[in-house]
Specification:
Blueprint lengths: L9 E3 L19 H10 L4 H8 E4 L2 E4 L10 E2 L4 E2 L7 H5 L4 H4 L2 H8 L5 E7 L1 H10 L6
Antiparallel strand pairs: 1-6, 2-3, 4-5
Helix pairs in contact: 1-2
Amino acid sequence: MDELWFADGLDFTCLECGRCCRGEPGAIWVTPEEMQRLARHMELTEEEFSRRFMTKRWGRPSLVERKNGDCIFLDAEKCRCLVYGLRPAQCSLFPFWPSLLRSRESWEEARERCPGMGQGRHFSQEEILAMLAKSPFFEL
């Protein structure tokens, strides 16, 4: 991100449609701490949780996806995350990912799939950069 095209900030409000959790294969990276919290919540050992719900994507631990690309923790019928309160940081940062912030075109392309992008709460450039700085996986 050489030039920050979003210097005036961006608008986003989650409409809880579940579109960000489905459809296309990718990676849902998880830190060891996030995995521990999820395992505890599900009353599983870390080993059992890892065996059932984890894989590696691009060399990093990631949640598995269903064959159709949906996140394993998406309740497709209700379009809700089954572990919303414990979801990985990557999930809570959406749509403020470097890949979507790289250019206005990338943001607009994602906006076609996410009805919450471009409306609602205004996030300043400083807020967006601060969120990314806290992420263990995203580099500015």
